[in-house]
Design goal:
34% of the residues lie in helices and 18% in strands. Helix 4 (146-155) runs parallel beside helix 5 (176-186). The chain has a seven-stranded mixed sheet with strand order 3-11-10-9-8-4-5, with helices on both faces. 39% of the residues are buried. It folds into two domains: 13-268, 3-Layer(aba) Sandwich (Aspartate Aminotransferase, domain 2); 280-368, Aspartate Aminotransferase, domain 1, CATH 3.90.1150.10. With 369 residues, the chain is of the alpha/beta class. The structure holds 4'-deoxy-4'-aminopyridoxal-5'-phosphate. 4'-deoxy-4'-aminopyridoxal-5'-phosphate is lined by residues 89-91, 116, 164, 168, 195, 197, 222, 224, 230, 235.
Length: 369
């Protein structure tokens, strides 16, 4: 046995997958065999638990896709377990998609900057050409030019289009009919990946509602933001089951550490979920309050409308605003190196006390100027 399993190739969305990976079954681990028994001696695991592992959670390799967590996530996101791949944050899903779809040096990735940096990093690592169709800075905020995105993807023979919605760091969320329209224009030519890391904070529903009619759509979700589990590294890709199967075949054998899976499952239990939803509501209220308060501060040029848990703010002197905040111990995200954002900072919405720290630091700065 060579350690590789094989999948029969099939049509449809799989035609967008790298031809050399369509029939690839990946590594055949000890956990992928459908074997039964009560003495497991097939994976060279330790005979005893580590003394620090009181509940013996970590002695054996974890389930590659923990079934209970997969079912809970599928219920949360309104899809079937077969449509969902659990990975190490949505970062891993982004990387897997680029590796599985793009032939190095040939198949392009389309993004709209300024945007979350990992799409470009994954493209670079795969040697996939990057096509940028910049966001347009308008009275309504930074908006993607969806027609131009589709044109550029088709002209550049791209395999992947990343649409971040709500967009990090600019805050706009696309309506579902716009997303469906873009997916339709890309049908048969490219996958449309809608990164919904922040969708819980937005007024727009998830694009998972479109999966039944858009086979070339992939939706990314994460427990890192609204669910407050960034360190557990649980993110998912939701897509056609045949695409999910290929992504799984190309993923590491045991990507989800058992303690993380346990914690995530507990974090999705009804009481925890109810509290998460209340907290999302509080963040949305604080976002409105902060938006208004920041707009009222001298030295603030513009606060962009945001559907995420952050605000993008332009300053007359962003250098000084950043330094002032830092001098009071408040660390925000410097956006000045990003295209079109030379005077901007991104401020995450914290709890009311943290938000007050931001406002008072910036107000004092202006009083002293
Ligand atoms: N997508 C977006 C838009 C993000 O802002 C982030 C994290 N900042 C991620 C994906 C990655 O999140 P994670 O890997 O923690 O799921």
């Amino acid at each position: 046995m060579n350690g590789f399993a094989s999948n029969a190739p099939s049509a449809g969305v799989l035609e967008l997958v790298r031809p050399d990976l369509r029939g690839f079954g990946g590594y055949k681990s000890a956990r992928t065999e459908a074997l039964r028994g009560d003495v497991w001696l097939n994976a060279n695991e330790s005979a005893w638990a580590n003394p620090a592992d009181a509940d013996a959670v970590c002695r054996r390799y974890p389930e590659p896709q923990p079934a209970a967590l997969r079912a809970a996530l599928a219920e949360l996101y309104g899809c079937t377990p077969e449509q969902l791949l659990i990975g190490r944050g949505s970062d891993e899903a982004i990387d897997l998609l680029v590796r599985v779809l793009c032939v190095p040096g040939r198949d392009a990735v389309v993004i709209s900057t300024p945007v979350f940096g990992m799409y470009a990093v994954s493209a670079r690592l795969q040697d996939a050409p990057l096509i940028d169709v910049p966001l347009r800075d308008t009275a309504q905020g930074f908006l993607p030019d969806l027609a131009a995105l589709a044109d550029a993807a088709l002209a550049g023979a791209a395999k992947l289009v990343f649409l971040c919605s709500p967009t990090n760091p600019t805050g706009h969320a696309c309506a579902l009919d716009e997303i469906a329209g873009l997916a339709g224009r890309l049908a048969g030519r490219a996958l449309l990946v809608v990164d919904e890391a922040y969708v819980e904070f937005s007024d727009v529903p998830s694009a998972t509602a479109l999966l039944a009619r858009c086979p070339n759509l992939v939706v990314l979700r994460t427990l890192s933001k609204a669910h407050a589990l960034a360190a557990a590294r649980i993110g998912v890709a939701i897509a056609a089951p045949e695409l999910i199967a290929v992504l799984r075949a190309c993923q590491a054998p045991y990507p989800i550490p058992a303690p993380c899976a346990e914690l995530a499952l507990a974090g999705l239990a009804p009481a925890a979920l109810a509290q998460t939803r209340q907290r999302v509501e509080r963040i949305r209220e604080e976002r409105s309050r902060m938006h208004e308060a920041l707009e009222g501060l001298p030295g603030v040029r513009r606060v962009y409308p945001s559907q995420g848990n952050y605000l993008l703010v332009r300053f007359d002197d962003a250098d000084r605003a950043f330094a002032t905040l830092l001098s009071t111990g408040v660390v925000v995200r410097d956006q000045r190196a990003a295209p079109q954002l030379g005077d901007a900072l991104r401020i995450s919405i914290g709890n009311p006390e943290q938000n007050e720290r931001v406002l008072s630091a910036l107000a004092v700065r202006e009083a002293a100027a």
